[in-house]
Amino acid sequence: QKEVEQDPGPLSVPEGAIVSLNCTYSNSAFQYFMWYRQYSRKGPELLMYTYSSGNKEDGRFTAQVDKSSKYISLFIRDSQPSDSATYLCAMSPSGNTPLVFGKGTRLSVIA
Amino acid sequence: GAVVSQHPSWVICKSGTSVKIECRSLDFQATTMFWYRQFPKQSLMLMATSNEGSKATYEQGVEKDKFLINHASLTLSTLTVTSAHPEDSSFYICSANLAGGADTQYFGPGTRLTVL
Question: Inter-chain contact B41–A8, Cβ cutoff 8 Å?
Fold first, then answer.
């Protein structure tokens, strides 16, 4: 079993839809959870960061962490064509350690 | 904001040659930089952790003699792919840690290496 599992998609939704992206993980030591957005042939860009369990909201984006289920989610409301990208979840047990990434989910928002 | 650059952004080389990729933190100092490799439609896989002034720590399965890492200063780390082969063709991405936190890793734009 891989440390971080993420459905690679592709996921195609109409503009304005609510998008739900998910990752599961096996390492209970993970404390830091991140979501990155990566456009084609570019480096990842940090979208959301959550420490331990709970929810975090930033504009159209909401991140949820359920440590008891080892499950994290990213919700995108009112999705836009500009949201079309690959979304990667990443996590780590402590602050200055390398991140463990999911495979990434490719999202297409159709106008 | 914190900016990390990589040079070159893409490179094509012949099999057997060596290629050097630079990773720079432009407006902050980073004692730790990470090097990742990403194959098409795959996730980022950590290759090594680079610490300024000391030897890099390589992940299992990554040949340290093939992928030479030098963290010469607090703003520069280099990855040299020695005797490159077609199977080394990939997208190489570095990240630099601004403040030692999980949310303060900033990624470079990546370098696409194609070995013919």
Answer: yes
